[in-house]
Amino acid sequence: MERGTLYMIPCPISDETSPWEVLPEGNRRVMQSLDYFIVENTRTARRFLSKAALGLKIDELEFVELNEHTVAGEAVERMMAPLMAGRSAGVISEAGVPGVADPGALVVEAAHRKGIRVVPLVGPSSILLAVMASGLNGQSFAFNGYLPVKGPERQRAIRHFERRAHQEHQSQLFIEAPYRNQKLIEELLQTLQAETRLTIAMDLTAPTEWIRTMRVAEWRKAKLPELNKRPAILIIG
Q: Residue 71 sits in which domain range?
């Protein structure tokens, strides 16, 4: 029996952005052909598909959740069973592209192991958008996820990534829970060297998008924007 295809389907980063403002029209045909979705969050995935106005009956679609609580094993095998039987599936993250800084990689690994075709579709990635707009090194960069929460460990991590940025000429990207942005940026400005460059990229693709790169010495003199509860990518370079 012919196996199905696993489609990696991007969605908007911001709730304020219409799907077809940031997704190519070619994605529409693929999305309309599917009735089985492996998603990080069912509620947000249903809302995304509804806003995309695909002509699908949302209540007749099948959703299974793959999130930070999912572990490789029987749960992932069950998700792959329909594809092994010839049914195609779409993987949808809570925001942006699936499989990058996202648990979707678990089913992609399983698909490759089982010989199932994986097709990534074009869409907005906050990581790539931030690098593109930063003016920092786009030839070599690393996404490091979240920094440690505890002060001493976080300061050590900041200094470690700063050393890598200077010694390897590699841009160092990381994120924080939006409600902790203010505290993290204050720590960065206290810990980083004056000549280190720092990019703050907030609300990417939203009407309130704000991106700026300056040396730390300049940031220390500048008036910071409102940071609370605004999703951000931070880059040291």
A: 5-120
